[in-house]
Amino acid sequence: MPTVLGLDISLNGTGAVILKNDVIQYHHRFEPKSIGIERLIEIEEYVTDLIETNLLDLVVIEGYAFARANQAHQMGEIGGVIRRRLHKLRIPWIEIAPNQVKKFASGKGNCKKDLILMNVYKRWRVEFQSSDEADAFILAKIGTILKGYTESLNQKQSEVIKALKKVV
Predict the structure, then answer these.
(1) pTM metric for this prediction
(2) Phi/psi class of residue 38: alpha, beta or left (left: φ > 0; alpha: ψ in -120 to 50)?
(3) Is 91 within 8 Å of 51 (Cβ atoms)?
(4) Which of 3, 16, 87, 129 is the most buried (most CB within 10 A)?
């Protein structure tokens, strides 16, 4: 069974969840203390440590939220830093659009973060303190399914997986 890292990358709080054999091995919301370029370095080091201390089959990253008006350039910077790091370490990774993450979690591609937290708890009986961790859990869950783990999916979840298999 696969070991998958789900990453919800953010400048203020990066959510990370590792699923091994579909069991949570690690979950955390990392909050950098620095500002400017030091913040990017801090996040990169956190993610690099996760990658280097776990034998991962796949990393699943939430794609850019293009509709967000604030901090688009900064998010592009940290997103690029992490993608470059994964490439250099030869770690397989995929990107999932934010609306697909929401649809998989709640059945709606445009729901609020608290609805994702609630649906993660209702469906999988997993409670997180932050929506960043809940998003990372969904990303890791999608990754495990794409890597061959089977579980009963509802129609909306099946639609997401089917769409992703076309591009992966």
Answers:
(1) 0.92
(2) alpha
(3) yes
(4) 16
